[in-house]
Amino acid sequence: MKQSYVSIGLVNPKSPTNVGGIMRAAGCYRVDSVFFTGKRYPLAASNGNAQYNTDTKGASQQISLTGVESLVDACHDDVKIICVDLVEGAIPLPDFEHPDKAIYVFGPEDGTISQQVINKADAVVYVPTVGCMNLAASVNVLLYDRLAKSTQTIANDDLIRESRDTNNRVRVRK
């Protein structure tokens, strides 16, 4: 089994646009899988491909998006459960050390993670903003923080060429 594993868990998401944005983020940050609970997302997504209009890189073609009964039961025993929510007593994200293997659980757009899931978490973190952020934005910030704190970051012009839009050929003048 590989050294690093990253999964996103979504508690009863309601917005196909947010889920599409999360899938795009999952592709950008090399997430292994995305899980969700509840019935709202499948119902909203049944109206066509609206959820993927924000996944312009087609990450949903390579990364599984799976409905499950329980996010806690969705991963192996060696995967740490990290809840990300505005919960009293949570650790500010800048102070958090990410585990090698984690499922990051996010609450719904209009609610919070249940006390039962919080009680089973290995850690609870929050992004120290004034007010709550959009769900997809929260996932992006969390994943960026994990990348920024990682020792396995690839940062060079090859990555830029591979990642940028086809219409972008701009260079920094030297």
From TrEMBL:
Cell membrane as UniProt keyword: no
Family: Belongs to the class IV-like SAM-binding methyltransferase superfamily. RNA methyltransferase TrmH family.
UniProt keywords, alphabetically: Methyltransferase, S-adenosyl-L-methionine, Transferase
Record lineage: Bacteria, Pseudomonadati, Pseudomonadota, Gammaproteobacteria, Alteromonadales
GO molecular function: RNA binding; RNA methyltransferase activity
Domain of life of the organism encoding this protein: Bacteria
GO cellular component: cytosol
Domain tRNA/rRNA methyltransferase SpoU type as annotated: residue spans: 7-144
Record-linked Pfam families: SpoU_methylase
Cited InterPro entries: Alpha/beta_knot_MTases (IPR029028), RNA_MeTrfase_TrmJ/LasT (IPR004384), SpoU_MeTrfase (IPR001537), tRNA_m1G_MTases_N (IPR029026)
Gene Ontology biological-process entries: tRNA nucleoside ribose methylation
Protein name: TrmH family RNA methyltransferase
Organism: Shewanella atlantica
